[in-house]
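2024-03-11 09:14:02 DEBUG pipeline.ingest accepted 1 chain
2024-03-11 09:14:02 DEBUG pipeline.ingest length=203
2024-03-11 09:14:03 DEBUG pipeline.predict start
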Amino acid sequence: MFTGAVEDIGDLVKASGSRFTFSVPERFLDTMKIGSSISINGACLTAVSLENKREHLSVDVSPETRSKTNIGNLKPGDKVNLELPLGIGEFSNRLDGHLVQGHVDALGRIGKIQKKRNNYLYRISTPRKFSNYLVEKGAVAVDGISLTPYQVTGGTFTVSVIPHTYENTTLKLKRNGSEVNVEFDVLAKYIRNSVDKTNPYRE
């Protein structure tokens, strides 16, 4: 489980088949072991190799993850957002964003980026079938970043990004047309699933 508060930025070193190797800060490797989880662009992945001297971390990316995320489209040198999972007992003192599972629901596409005063507005579209998971002033994770959606229309929404988030995540590298990983709020998904199961008029 993650919070959507990105801790640092890494970059892809190489990809060979399903094995992806990233350069990550040493402090990440100091707290990890083989089998540890890490959020990379919002996707929860498992460390299969750690090279502390070279500050490299390798993960295996499944076909399912490739199909639902932008991980498979990364090229060597591309930047990624990184976050370590919450530890036991950290929910009370480190829940800075919202509960993020690292299970990406869909690829979104940035349709428009606009600077408004000090903030940056991103208009993001996702498949319409996910519209029931989007709530005005709710929560959504975009490339692993906890953000608040508004101006929700169907599967399209806007997020406002403060300067700190803009400068310390990969959002500053995005352009119109860029793909982003989107995970909808897990609470919204559970509630919607519960409503669907109890609705006598559903098909």
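2024-03-11 09:14:41 DEBUG pipeline.report The first strand starts at residue 8 and ends at 16.
2024-03-11 09:14:41 DEBUG pipeline.predict end
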